[in-house]
Specification:
Blueprint: E1 2-7, H1 13-21, H2 29-34, E2 41-45, E3 50-54, H3 62-69, E4 74-80, H4 87-98, E5 104-109, H5 116-130, E6 140-142, H6 151-164, E7 175-177, E8 180-184, E9 188-194, E10 199-201, E11 205-209, E12 213-222, E13 225-227, E14 229-231, E15 235-242, E16 254-256, E17 264-272, E18 281-282, E19 285-291, E20 294-302, E21 307-308, E22 313-324, E23 331-336, E24 342-350, H7 361-370, H8 376-385, E25 390-391, H9 392-398, H10 403-412, E26 416-420, E27 423-427, H11 429-449, E28 456-457, H12 458-465, H13 471-484, E29 488-490, E30 493-495, H14 505-520, H15 528-535, H16 539-551, E31 555-559, E32 562-565, H17 566-583, H18 588-595, H19 599-611, E33 615-618, E34 621-624, H20 628-632
Parallel strand pairs: 1-3, 1-4, 4-5, 5-6
Antiparallel strand pairs: 2-3, 7-16, 8-9, 9-15, 10-14, 11-12, 11-16, 12-13, 12-15, 17-22, 17-24, 18-21, 19-20, 19-23, 20-22, 23-24, 25-27, 26-27, 28-30, 29-30, 31-32, 33-34
Length: about 625
Amino acid sequence: MIVGTAGHIDHGKTTLVKALTGVDCDRFKEEKARGITLDLGYAYAEDGRLGFVDVPGHERLVRNMLAGATGIDFVLLVVAADDGPMPQTREHLAIADLLDLGRGAVALTKVDAVAPERRAAARAEIAALLAGTALAGAPVFEVAATTGEGVNALRSHLVAAAEAQSAHTTAGSFRLPIDRCFTLQGVGLVVTGTAFSGKVAVGEAVTITPPGLEARVRGIHAQDRSAPSGGAGERLALNLAGDFGKEDIARGMWVTAPSLHAPVTRFHARLRVPASTDAPIRHWMPVHVHLGAADILGRVALLEGERLAPGEAMLAELILDKPAGALWGDRFILRDQSATRTLGGGRVLDIFPPTRHKRAPERLDYLRLLEQGDPAPALAHALARQPAGTNLDRYALNRNLAAAEAEALWRDMGLVVVEEADGRSGFSQENWQALCARLLEAARAEHERAPDMIGVERDRLRRLALPTLPRAVFDRLTFELLEAGALAQSGSWLHLPGHRAALAATDADLWRTLKPLLEAEPCNPPRVRDIARATGIAEETVRGLLKRVARVGQAYPVAHDHYFTAESVADLAGRVARLCARDGTARAAALRDEIGGGRKVAIHILEFFDRIGYTRRVRDEHALRAGADRDWIV
C-alpha cells in the first residue's frame, strides 16, 4: 500500500515517516539545512508492504506535492497539535478529495508539546475540517514522533489497512508516471514512479511518452526490492536502456507499453470545484494542469456553461500548451495561472475529442456514459451515432483495454468487426443490417434511374449508399450480400439479382456490326473516330452506341473514346493477375510485353483497373486488391 503524507509546512511529516520507517526522506543538503522538505521523498516499511511518499508542505511547492499525490492508496493527513489545521492542510485535503482519495487517517503530531486541553481542541478542529470530505470520520492518532508516543498504534493501523486493501488489478497495459530520474554508477539511468496500470517485466520494450523514446527494461525494483516484474499499485524503480540520456527525461513523462504511446493536447473530462473554494472557474480560464506527475499550462473550455461555481461539477475540455500522457480515468488537479491556489480537479473521460459539435447533446450524453466503469454503454452509444463505424482501437486505447479485454468486449456485445488500414471498425448488429439494407436500396434506386445499365460500379454504389463508408467496410458488406445471394455481380458491376439490362433492337443490330472490329485487336481496339472512319457511320452515332453498350456491360470505356469488349477486359484482368502473381505487382512495361501493344495503351489499361477497384496504384506499380482475382477472372 502506498501511503502519501499531506499537511502544512513544519507539521512533522518527514519526522513522522522517519519514526515509522527509520528512513530520513530529506535527501538534499538544503532540506537538512533548512529543516523542510523541498521535493518528494520515499521510504518503505514492514517488508515493503508499506511505501511512503513524503511531500512538501510549503505553498510554493504544491506542484511537487501533486507530483507524488497521484497513485497513492492511503492519505496520512498530518496536523500539528500546537497549530491545528493551517492553509496547506486545507489545500492538501482539498486536493486529496479532488483526487478521490477516500482512504486515510490523521496524525495529530507534536502532542508532547501541548496541554491535554489543546489536544482536545485540535481534535475538534480536525473533525470540523474533515466534515463533508472523502476523509470524514477518518481515525485520528495522537503521536509524538520524537518520543515515540502513538507511533506503534499508527503503524499497526497502517499495516491493517494494507492487509485489508483489495489487490490492485493489473488489467490494461503498463503505465507509470515518472516522478524522479537519476543515474547510478554501474547501473545506468533509473526512473521511478507508482504504476497506474498493467505489468512490466525485465527485458520488455517500453516507450517514454510524450517524446516517444524507445527503451528496454534492464532491471526493476518493486517496493524497494529487486524483482523480475512489477505492476499496478507498486512503487517501481526501472533501470532503462535506450538511445537517450538523463537530460532527455523529465518529471511528468510516462513509461508505457508501446501501444499506449498517444500524447494528447486536448481531452474531455468531468471537472469539479470544491465547495470550500472561494472563486468559480470561468470559460477559457488559463490554468496549471497537474496530471500524473506533470505540471502543464493550459486552458479550460466549459462545455455546459460559461461559469463553474464552487460546489458544482461540469463537463469540460482541457486544452494543453504541450503534449501530455493521459487516458480515461486519470485524475487531475487545476491550479490558477500564478500557481498559488487550487481551483478544482477532475477525471479524464476522452482523449480523442471531436473538433466540432463538442457541446451537442449527443456528445454530452456520450461523455456522461463514459463516466461509468462499464465500457459497454458508452461504446453502444457511439455505435448508434456513427453509421460508418466506430474506431474500436481508439476506444480501447482511451479506456486502456488490453487486447484480450477488448476482444471479450467486442464479442460480448456481438459486434461486427472490420479490419481497416488505420485500425478496426465496429458495428452493432442493428447498424450492420441497416447498412446492408441501405446498400441494396441504393442499388434499387440506381436501377430505376438507369434501367438500361447492367448495374452500378463499386465505388459509385459505395458513395450512393454512404459517402463516408470506408472501402474495407463496403467490401465486407458486398461480400456478405453476394454470398447470401442478395446482390449479384457482372464483371465490375454490382446489381440486384433480378435486374437485367439489354440493348434496344436497333442498338443490338448495330453492335453486331461493330463488335468484330473491336474483337480483331482485343488488346488495342480501334477508337471511336477510327471505327467511324472505317465504317462510314457518324462519329457521334458510334460514340452514343458504345456508351449504351457499356451500360449493359458488354463493353468498357478503358480510356476516353477507347472501348474494349467485356471478353477482352476479362482476359486482360487475368493477364494482370498473372503478372502480379509472378512479380508481386504489374508494371506498364511488363503488360506492354504481355499484350504486344504500346506502352501508352498498357498505362491506360492499368489506370482503368485502378479506377474500377480491381488494382490499386503503388507509385509506378499496380497491385491487386484483396479478392480481385475472384471477382474478375471469368
